[in-house]
Amino acid sequence: MSGERPKIRLRGLTKRFGEKIVLDGVDLDIRAGHGMVILGGSGSGKSVTIKCILGLIEPDAGVIEIDGRDVLSMDRRERDALNDHVGMLFQNGALFDSLPVWENVCFKLLAQKRITRALARDKAAEVLAQVGLAASVGDLYPSELSGGMQKRVALARAVAAEPDIIFFDEPTTGLDPIMGAVIDGLIVDVVKRLGATAVSITHDMASARRIGDDAAMIHRGKIVWTGSAAMLGDSGNPVVDQFARGEREGPIQMELRR
Amino acid sequence: MRASTWAPRRVDAVLTPVAAVGRGVIGACRSIGAVTLFALQALALTFRAPFHWRLFLRHFIEIAYFSLPVVALTAIFTGMVLALQSFTGFARFNAEGAVANVVVISITRELGPVIGSLMVAGRIGAAFAAEIGTMRVTDQIDALTTLSTNPVQYLVTPRLLAGIAALPLLILVADVLGIMGGWLIGTAKLGFTSAAYLRATLDFLQMMDVVSGLVKAAAFGFVITLMGCWCGYNSRGGAEGVGAATTAAVVSSSILILALDYVLTEMFFAR
């Protein structure tokens, strides 16, 4: 990891909501063109971390650099230009239910005026084929799709504009194991084809090993371990090993009562 | 010992209610400021590309066309009741002839815009708050940001402009139908001839009555769509949050319509 410049570099990222400290100095380097998986329990700050990188939440302190440029000091225009090259798959899909699937898929291309509405249907069919969906799905509305199909449409939407960086927020949550593996396979294919940097947050170990090259463990608002995703479950770090094996006893204590 | 703790307690007893009032006032000021900035941001974005014509048209049709039945029925019945009430009231002063004048002035200046807008507040304010609120709690608003689209420009600006443009047209129809309601009762029940009733209506009607009513309607359209968007945009916490946002949108826009009506009437007609 040393030597080459990381695609995304976080230093001392801090965020609190009221009294609760969610991020307590997150330091993380994410390599260009690799898959990074951020692991952590519910409420550990995974989602807040990527929402900070995306600019959806303003951190209280810290540095976020993308391609060596400080994101937090950018003006709105620069920030928008940067976001043009970023894609995001939301946990529940977040498809626009007032728009048909084809318009959802090509939303970013249409917003950036890189495509006309007349051509968007064909483009949508092309992208839908990459995630294993028929072109006819393009004319349906999101509410008419099953959970797995919604996830695939959301994946198609996240990658349609061919981003450099793609974020995946719990891509397999709420899917059966086989559909989870299918989605993971599509993610790996599409990321490889685009040569993009993929940042995923998950608590699904099987999924983490499939889509990650590197892994990082976040616990109580801090990164406590980084290493190869292949080493998960055998990392030598008690926090990571407890999490990876899903054990009740260990350094992570669930706060069941207050 | 007892004396030393006694004095601060009495100060607390005085200050606690004062502090509560202060907190309320500060909170109200903060909300007003936040809504104002939200509205200014949305209106300023009208002048920055892209303008979402498709959405503007969709919301315009939703407000102007699909609210027609509700507003039309309300206006007709209001005009009918108005004719009936003013007839029985004026009979005491032998001034039954003024029914047409009272109906036309009341409808164009006040009842058309206010009652019509209250109906639209229930329909459109609630629908906007529920739709935008659902988009908020299902991350669709965050998704807009990641898809190179400004959520305020996409969701709020077209709705505000559609409300401002649609309400005057809707209220113009309400004015006509309200006067027609009065005419129905006047000719069918109260013994006016059609020609006499219409002549009295037209003789008494001034341009200012209609124009002031339509300006009010535009202002109410702004208030309804603004509160619908604001409450939805800031909703939190799942289905319950969306429900609360919907209620808040209808209640706040209804109150604001009535308060703003007073202010605008003062501006137009106070001498």
Question: Can you give a write-up of this model?
Answer:
The complex is a heterodimer of chains A (about 260) and B (about 270). With about 260 residues, chain A is of the alpha/beta class. Chain A has 2 domains: about 1-85 and about 165-260, Rossmann fold (3-Layer(aba) Sandwich); about 95-160. Chain A has helices at about 45-55, 75-85, 100-105, 105-110, 115-130, 145-160, 175-195, 205-210, 240-245; strands at about 10-15, 20-30, 35-40, 60-65, 70, 85-90, 165-170, 195-200, 215-220, 220-230. In chain A, helix 5 crosses helix 6 and helix 6 (about 145-160) runs parallel beside helix 7 (about 175-195). Chain A starts with 7 loop residues before the first strand and ends in a 13-residue tail after the last helix. By secondary structure, chain B is mostly helical. The mean pLDDT of chain B is about 90. In chain B, helix 3 packs antiparallel against helix 4 (about 100-135), helix 4 (about 100-135) packs antiparallel against helix 9 and helix 6 crosses helix 7. Chain B is built from 9 helices and no strands. Chain B folds into 2 domains: about 1-50; about 50-270, no CATH class. At the A-B interface, strand 6 and helix 4 of A face helix 5 of B.
Cα distance spanning the termini of chain B? 65 Å
Question: How many beta-strand runs of chain B?
Answer: 0
**Helix residue percentage of chain B:** over 70%
The description of the largest β-sheet of chain A is: 6 strands, mixed
The end-to-end span of chain A amounts to 41 Å
Order of helices and strands of chain A: EEEHEEHEHHHHEHEHEEH
Strand order of the largest sheet of chain A: 6-7-8-3-9-10
Shape-level CATH architecture of the largest domain in chain A: 3-Layer(aba) Sandwich
Number of domains of chain A: 2
The mean pLDDT of chain B is 92
The helix/strand series of chain B, from N terminus to C terminus, equals: HHHHHHHHH
In quaternary terms, these chains amount to heterodimer
Q: Can you count the beta strands of chain A? A: 10
Class by helix and strand content of chain A?
alpha/beta
Q: What's the domain count of chain B?
A: 2
Shape of chain A: globular
SS-based class of chain B: mainly alpha
